[in-house]
C-alpha cells in the first residue's frame, strides 16, 4: 500500500515534469517565430570597451545626466566584447558571428594579403577572406593607449585589440618599423587616392587606434601589413537604411536609429556630447552621441568627395558641406563619444572623417607645406577636445593631421545602450615621473 502511494506520487510528478517540458518547447517555438517577425540584427556593433569617463584632459567620476561630459562612451555599455578561442588558431566573435584567424603572421603586401586568403586552411576551413574595413574595425577596443610615435618604451602600453585572443605585436625593428607600425590590411580600397596619386587601402592600426588609408606603394617598394582572415556572417557591415520620413533613419542591420540631418555647425567635444543628449527630434529625446564604432558603421566607403562629390555616407543622410583650410568644398569630421587616450592624458577624442582626411605635408622640393588628403575620407583619427585650432597651423606631430577641434556631430539612439551612472574607481597617477638613478 505504502509503495503504491509512492509510485502514484512519482507518476504524478513525472506527468507534471513532462507537461512543463512540453510547455517549455512550445515557448521556444513562439520565441523563434517572434524573432522572425522582428527584424534580425545582422550587423551587431561591438562596444569599444571604454569603461572610464574623461573631461577635456583627464579621467573623472561618471558625470550625472545634468552635468558636463555626460553621455560619453563609457556611460552607454552596449554589446560587450565576447570571444571564443577554439584552440586551433581560430577565434569566434560571439557578437558579430564572424570567425577570425588568431595570428597575422609576418607582414606582407596588400596583393599577398589578398592572395593568401584562399590558400589559408587554418582550423580546417577553406572559406577565409580578407576582412572589409568594417569587419576589421569590429575588433578595435578603446581601452588601448595611443603611444608616442617616437617612443621606444613599451612599458604600460596597451594595444587597441584584445591580445589574449589575437596575436599582436608593436612595430618590429627587423622591418625598420616604428613602435606604432602595426597596421592591419583590409579588402577596402579608397575610391580616390591619397597624397595626390597613391592607390590606397583602408587599414586599422591596432597599435595607435586609428583607421587610415595607406598608399600601397612607398618609395622603398610595396608597403607591408599584418593580415587576419575572417569567415562567416556575409551580411556583416551591410547597412539596411530606412528613411522614416520624420527626420530619422533606422538601420535595420544594426538596430540603431540616426538623425537624418547633422548638427549643421561645428563644436567642441563637450558641446557635441551635450548637443546630442539635449536633442529632441522625431518624437524622441533619448538621443546620444555615437561611440566611434557606431559612427563608423554608417560610413559608405564607396563614396567620397573626389569620386561622388559627396560626403562618405549613404545619400539617405544629409551632410553639411564645409570649406577646408584652403577654401575648397569638403565635408566635416564628426565627433564620437569615445576618448582617444595616451599615456599622459585624455585630451583627444576620436572622430570619423566624412570628408578628405587632410594633412599638411612638407614638399621638400619647394620647402612649402601642401594641404593633401593624406589618409582618405572614411579615416578615423582624433582631435583635441578643446582649444584653438590656430595653435596648430601646420597640424600636429608626425601624424601631420590637420587639427580642427570644432567638428560636426550626428546623433544616434536605440541599440542595446542603457545609460550607466557608475564605473570603476578612478586610476590614481603619480604626480611626477618616478625618479630613476
Ligand atoms: Ca560604450
Ligand atoms: Ca535627452
Question: Concise description?
Answer:
The protein has 437 residues and is of the alpha+beta class.
Could you explain how this protein is built, in words?
This protein has helices spanning about 1-35, 110-120, 135, 270-280, 290-295, 305-310; strands at about 55, 60, 85, 90-95, 100, 110, 185, 200-205, 210-215, 215-220, 220, 225, 230, 240-245, 250, 255-260, 320-325, 330, 335-340, 350-355, 360-365, 370-375, 380-385, 410-415. The chain has about 425 residues and is α+β, with helices and mostly antiparallel strands. The strands form 9 sheets. A 4-stranded antiparallel sheet has the order 3-4-5-13, with no helix packed on it. Strand 14 and strand 15 (about 250) form a beta hairpin. The N and C termini lie far apart (about 90 Å). Residues about 1-5 and about 10-35 have low confidence and may be disordered. The structure holds calcium ion (2 copies). One calcium ion binds near residues 277, 278, 285 and 286.
